[in-house]
Amino acid sequence: MNTANFGLEDILLTSPMIVLFLFSLVPLTIKILRGNVEQVHLATVIEVLIGLLVTATLIVVFGSEGQGGSPTAFGGQLIFDGLTTWSSLIAVVITGASVVLMYENPSTRGPQFSELMFLTMSSLLGALILIASINLIGVFIGLELMSLSLYLMIAMSHEQKISKEAAIKYFVLGSMASAVFLYGVSFIYGTTGSISTVDLMETAQPLIQGHSNLFIFGFALVIIGFCFKVSIAPFHAWTPDVYQGSPTPVTAFMATAVKTASFAAFLRILASKGIGGSDNLLNLLQWLAVITMTVGNVAALVQNNLKRTLAYSSVAHSGYVLMGVIAVGISEGSAYPAASVIYYLMAYSLMTLGAFAVLSLIERNENHFVQTDELAGLAKSHPMLALCFSVFLFSLAGLPPVMGFFGKLYLFSAAINEGLLWMALWGIINSVLSVYFYLRPIVVMYMKEGSCTSSKENYGTTFVVVVLAVLIIVLGVVSGPIFNMVERSLG
Amino acid sequence: MLLSLLIFLPIVLALAVTAWPQKTTLRYLALAGSIIEFAVSLVVLLQFDKTSPALQLVEKHMWVERFGISYFLGIDGISMMLVMLTTFLTPVIILASWKSIDERIKGFHASLFVLQTAMLGSFLAMDAILFYTFWELSLIPMYFMVGIWGGARRIYATVKFFIYTMSGSVLMLLAIIFMMRLTPEVTGGSISASILDFYKLQIPFIAGDFFTPQTLLFFAFALAFAIKVPMFPLHTWLPDAHVEAPTPGSVILAGVMLKMGTYGFIRWVIPLFPEAAEHFSWLFIGAGVVGIIYGALVAMIQPDVKKLIAYSSVSHMGYIIIGLFTMNSYGLNGGLYQMLNHGISTGALFLLIGMIYERTHSREIAKYGGLASALPFFTIAFIIVTMSSIAVPMTNGFIGEFLILLGSYQYSPWVAVFSVTGVVLGAAYMLWMVKRVFFGPKGEIVLAAEKDSHHALYDLSPREVLVLVPLVVLIFWMGLFPNQFMNYSKTSVDYLIQNKNQYMLLGAGER
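The joint structure predicted for all components is written out below.
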């Protein structure tokens, strides 16, 4: 037994998480010290942003360079490889942007802002643990910490009806999924005697090829648990309701940071080569991906509520990412498919966050759900905002030369490399389908008369929107070096 | 550097136009900028060596190293002509839009310049992904142009245009990725998206079997280009887009954007998949013939003069497709020449219709009649352009159609027989339209103009003369001295044919 056998190195490696935890206590502590009186929101936000900045710096400093073996902490419970570094970095950056959104959105700012900030950072902490865990119990802990904070963040919205419904819905279904996941883990432990995904790499393939039904059952349950978290059809039904009900900044956080973390962990489990040995499991996953893309895009076609449109779009994008994750699962140890997934997640997070940020700017109060038709006239009253929104939407639709296009290019090439040509074909067909609903807001903004405005004082969110739009263009045009960096760190 | 300058100068202009504070002088800035751009393209023309079939003024830098995607520009005779057409038409369009576009002029000029970049980029990109990037980029400004400044049903038209074209091109993207995966065979290990490496590929082809790589890749590319051309029966987006687009949009759509499709056939489809192209040439020539006749017949009965021209475009593009797929020297040269002709004559027709629409706010043929008495100079210009469009000798249209017919006769006399009917039908619907609009009894509009000074019709203004003169000059210049133009492209076309034949021989030898 390797009990309590840890040293400085473990502390250093996990320092981002420790620092993040400490910083998450700052706003709450200050509030208590002030006799339960909320301090100025701006001060809270600055504290949080400093915390996130330090966390991000520590991630970069102690992150893996990709040379040699990846360091692990606490006797092989947490791994710090390229995947951890990049996914954590995406999650932290996205959280920073979401915090700015929360500061200015009417449904999140108010007397409980410090609590909200604490929950956001705990949720991020859960995400970081989830990303780094190579132990299925660690994965579970990360997943729960992330989700439990999230349930509260949704329920804390000032909107009184839909957000409560969303929180309950997400809580019940999310707990169910966690239970399914845990049940699956117990079967895996029962058949292999280990809960480490590293051990799984060696034990999974022979067990699956040997038709060990108990193991396959357990593995399938674990996959189902993740499919729920990343809203893969048919486990996606909660997504539109919860996304709509949550305050827009929380939705943005949920759709990007949380999804990136969940996919990173999903990737790690599928990279254990379990699915490579089983044609049934492989086929099933492929079908799930294809169905998810199609369901997401077709349902988005008929939405008029912009948040629901983006929710279904997020479901569809999960389908694309799952395609890449499958490619990772069947590839022979090449870093390329995993890098393409990471790049795609980066692109997806930036553009989805951007789109939600625009929505957040347009919302007048906490009970206002933006309909597509309401955007009419935005191009006249806020040309810059409309332009940025168009960049996000064109990128989501996968038009060159922005990030969305290169994300798809790399992802589809990865799929084709692994012989998944038919999935790439479906992906392509779906991208065309999606163009229609991504264009609709643009049509309304630019080509219809109306009086859509946004509140002028939201400088922070506006800044986030512009920065994201620039990033999407720049990281798209110079995607080569970025992709190389990701791939090197994973290799 | 010259080609980069040529491509990115319009983007700079677009930014300049957006940032320009004064609305009144904005058009002058745009006009001056587009003329400088034309001057740059003239410099390219002067530096171009027309005796060499090789790519010239080449620029190549690695873009995405992992995938062998490069920023690879080059120009040969085929691109040269289309580049000149693009840079020539842009100042004409800016001048023509002087009065007709009066709201959001910043946005309009910015879209126009971005569109110019995208079109020039597609003609000059010699890397598949770079080409695809420019190709898709061209959709966005056009989408806004139709959607913002268009007619009553503009949104329907623009969304249809976007989705139609996009659905064609994504399959091409898949095909490009697939071909990039094949390139290590010829580059010695590294993946590449350069067209020169693509040209070296020998993709397996089996005549009777549809599911062979070359056939599938051929169709994936051909579909994208056929939609853009548009080739019958994929043409249905075109009449909608043309009718709803503002005049400058129609001109650029007919003048240059449709040429991107036919250019794609010459640059990518025929050299990359010669066997499949030859094997399925009957399909494309058949569609071309049907398109010629169908387009002409539908044009004949249109009550709306703009729609009539739109369908005549379908008919004319049918000729170009036939010319290209005969794959002999006459056909290809004629096809390429006809691309320029169509750009100029159909572009001019749309400009003229735009001018008449500004005066009368109607495009219904039935309301016109007897316009010649009120607008004599306008009528002369219109008739000259009509002559070019129906290929009367001495005009440019004649040379192009004649060469294509020669080429198609070589391919099969029957094709020539059927395509010639298009010439007759073309003359019929155009002349009939001219008769109904300009001659005959005075129609509603002319009568109203005579009665009421508010509706008075004015003949060409100096600005409009300035718009039309270069076009009319080109019509005769290209009709009387075709060799001055064709010399630029001839070497490249011959080289293409020679390479294709060599490929077929090599392929046969290997099997």
